[in-house]
Amino acid sequence: MTILHSASAEVRCAIESLNAHFAWLIDHRDGAGVENLFMDDGVYDMSNRIFTGTAQIKSFYDARKSRGKRAARHVFTNLHLQMDADNRASGNVILTLYACDGEPPYPSVPILVADYNDIYVQSSAGEWKYQSRQIIPVFGGIPNLAGKSEKS
Question: Which of 9, 19, 24, 43 could in theory staple to 132 by disulfide, Cβ–Cβ 3.0 to 4.6 A?
Fold first, then answer.
């Protein structure tokens, strides 16, 4: 059995910043640029759809934006992080999601509480990125925001 070790404060800060930037891009830029937070062959498993590679991830957020006005706030908490190697870490964060289509005012009830299971890798440029990001719903469900579900 391999014993995992805790991340340094520098790595933890970089990964917390990555997660915050992920949320900010979705909440304030309709997801524009989220694909750049993943490795080129990164996998984004939304439970009801799986996107592989930055082009598929970008296409999802382009389709999501084309649906019209949507407000969202992705609140990430409780980062649990373990180093798997010098340039690779696995982690879990809890998401509380508030989201609604249309114009405000919006309801103040979360639509989803989920675990995000992540694999982070440090790119050759030194940036931490997602190798994979998997959403596991705990309360509520993941809305189908762009096209037909691949698991239906």
Answer: 43
CA 130 remoteness from chain centre:
9
What length is written for the chain?
152
User: What does the block give as tokens for 81?
Assistant: 């992080």
**Please, are residues 132 and 20 in contact by the beta-carbon 8 Å criterion?**
no
Q: pTM score, two decimals?
A: 0.89
Backbone angles phi, psi at 73, to 5 degrees: -135, 115
**What 3-state DSSP class applies to 6?**
coil
Residue type, 87: N
Alpha-carbon distance of 37 to 68, in angstroms, equals 24
Phi and psi at 54, nearest 5°, equal -65, -30
